[in-house]
Write a structure and sequence with these properties.
The complex is a heterodimer of chains A (255) and B (313). Chain A has 255 residues and is an all-alpha fold. Chain A has one domain. Chain A is built from 13 helices and no strands. With 313 residues, chain B is of the alpha/beta class. Chain B is built from eleven helices and 14 strands. The longest helix of chain B is centred in the middle third of the chain and has 17 residues. The radius of gyration of chain B is 23 Å and the shape is globular. Classes of the chains: A mainly alpha (255), B alpha/beta (313). At the A-B interface, helix 1 and helix 6 of A face helix 2, strand 6 and helix 3 of B.
């Protein structure tokens, strides 16, 4: 356990020692802030129109501002996570540091878990930074805190699944660029896989919708945390981690 | 009998249909420094990677300090330190951070981390650069950091793949000194191309060729097997002709080499006293007299051709 933690801490420190992590955080934060501002202005206009028609009450604030921002943040992370996760194992092999790890008394599972935990730390930091943006609403309005928090949990799980797929890709190649492209491809497919379902209808529709990352994430954005969605994300993450472990074991045999 | 720290038995390794290692038998005892010679592509690195746990053998068994590498890979790896061909350096870490990180992954208890790291840095001459980023260090210092990480956790077995490549002559001398010193408490398997390095550091030598061990013996025995005798390189200021050397008692052959002569002597004969006497008496002006044990290629070529002859028979 302590070895996993040692690996994870080094991983996060390594990320922040390179400009990549800082750049990704800056881009993520700036674009989300911009989108949030845009949806806030839209909300203001819609509210004015709404009241001009003599309607009373208010439009749902959280659903029209926070939820779209978190939804877009997931799409941004879909682009960003492959760039972070590609380094996890492939970079060590490319730089020649891999033998130092592989000849240490660590099982492949420990190495993979350490790397993954490090990535989860980074995701938690990134989401913590993003969460600051909607907090600015609190002095002026009354956002739905439950829905907000559910959205953050959903975003964390989504990003964690992105990371697990990236980890799997990173374990399968010595070239980080190949890992990034491969994981981006898989993630984008998982994101849009339900699109075909809409056209076909029936059982296929349901199956494809189940595999779609987007479908499960959207439930969180409406404030719904269901065990079915939790299981989906946990399974996807576990699959990525186990694939990476399997690759490392197979590598010893295949060379 | 001393304890066997490295034991490879019937180790074969296939890469697809290519047989990289063929039935390797190798034993290294406690406190021994063993030289591991062979041309590129002979299987040195593959053997070392198998010992380090990076590769699994296709057949055969491997034990490190009595622990079977296949049955208990993690425990076996706890007993080795490995320096691969290219030192595994994290550029964004300082030397001290780097060694602390790897030592803690290799089960050095928290309370002893600082002490173990200090000792490794001291032994490898890294104390002065402890707080420098590895990225900014010269190749020689990176190589030393690579050796330091292989010994920081005081493993029973140290595996060094060409540790002096890229070092300057002073560093090479220091590193050889260190390797010889390591032999006291660790068992060392040292791969190299450089014969003087083997002579300075190793007690025993194994030669690998085309995935097979073709010789495994003490260095002196190996050299005498090749030459059947000892050899000396001599250079004179004014030697009238080489026949004067050939006529000396105990001389088997004289061949010109560079600006001097290589004298090989018949078994058990020592032509040196006679050579010195003649040189003074005849005024040949002796400039240089060095024992020459043939270079690695000589030894190697002889060993492999002998092997082929045996195969033909």
């Amino acid at each position: 356990m302590s070895a996993i933690l040692t690996l994870a801490v080094r991983e996060v420190r390594g990320m922040f020692h390179s400009p990549l992590a800082w750049t990704l955080l800056a881009v993520l934060f700036s674009i989300c802030a911009y989108m949030f501002n845009a949806s806030l202005l839209n909300y203001q206009i819609q509210m004015m129109e709404y009241q001009a028609y003599g309607m009373r009450g208010a439009l749902p604030l959280t659903e029209r501002t926070i939820a779209p921002m978190l939804g877009n943040a997931a799409v941004l992370l879909l682009l960003i996570m492959p760039l972070l996760s590609m380094r996890l194992i492939a970079e060590e092999k490319r730089q020649g540091t891999w033998p130092a790890l592989a000849s240490s008394p660590l099982s492949p599972m420990v190495i993979v878990m350490g790397k993954y935990l490090g990535l989860l730390f980074f995701i938690a930091i990134a989401i913590g930074v993003l969460a600051i943006i909607p907090l600015t609403l609190y002095p002026y309005g009354n956002p739905d805190t439950g829905q907000f928090l559910a959205g953050l949990v959903g975003l964390f799980l989504t990003a964690a699944s992105f990371g697990a797929v990236g980890l799997a890709a990173s374990s399968a190649t010595e070239n980080p660029n190949v890992a990034a492209v491969a994981s981006f491809g898989v993630l984008l497919l998982l994101w849009i896989v339900s699109w075909m379902g809409n056209a076909s209808g029936g059982a296929l529709d349901k199956t494809l919708a189940y595999f779609s990352l987007m479908t499960h994430y959207q439930n969180f954005l409406t404030g719904l945390i269901s065990s079915a969605d939790l299981v989906y994300f946990v399974l996807l993450s576990a699959a990525g981690v186990l694939f990476a472990r399997h690759r490392l074991l197979a590598e010893r045999i295949q060379g | 009998m001393t304890e066997t720290m490295i034991h490879l038995s019937g180790v074969t390794r296939m890469f697809g249909t290519v047989k990289a290692l063929d039935n390797i038998e190798l034993q290294v005892h406690r406190g021994e420094v063993m030289g591991f010679l062979g041309p590129n592509g002979a299987g040195k690195t593959t053997t070392m990677r198998i010992l380090a746990g990076l590769l699994a053998p296709t057949e055969g068994s491997v034990a490190v300090a009595g622990v079977d590498v296949l049955e208990d890979p993690v425990e076996a790896r706890a007993r080795i330190g490995f320096l691969p061909e290219n030192p595994p350096i994290y550029g964004e870490m300082t030397v001290e951070e780097y060694l602390t990180y790897l030592a803690s992954l290799r089960r050095v208890p928290k309370g002893q981390l600082a002490g173990a790291v200090d000792r490794a840095m001291e032994r490898c001459g890294l104390t002065a650069v402890a707080n420098r980023l590895l990225r900014n260090l010269s190749k020689g210092y990176r190589q030393r950091a690579g050796i330091a990480q292989a010994i920081v956790h005081a493993p029973d077995v140290v595996i060094l793949d060409e540790p002096t490549v890229g070092l300057d002559p002073i560093q090479i001398r220091e590193i050889r000194e260190l390797i010889r010193e390591l032999g006291g408490e660790h068992s060392v398997l040292l791969s190299t191309h450089i014969l003087p390095e083997v002579r300075m550091t190793c007690g025993r030598v194994a030669v690998i060729h085309q995935g097979r061990i073709v010789a495994d013996d003490a260095l002196e025995n190996l050299e005498s097997r090749v030459h059947g005798s000892s050899a000396h390189f001599v250079r004179f200021g004014s030697l009238p002709d080489a026949d004067a050397l050939r006529r000396m008692a105990g001389v088997a052959g004289v061949t010109p080499r560079e600006d001097g002569w290589l004298i090989t002597s018949v078994a058990a004969a020592d032509p040196v006293p006679e050579l010195l006497r003649l040189s003074v008496a005849q005024g040949w002006n002796l400039r240089e007299l060095t024992p020459a044990g043939g270079n690695l290629e000589d030894i190697f070529l002889q060993l492999t051709t002998r092997e082929e002859k045996e195969n033909v028979q």
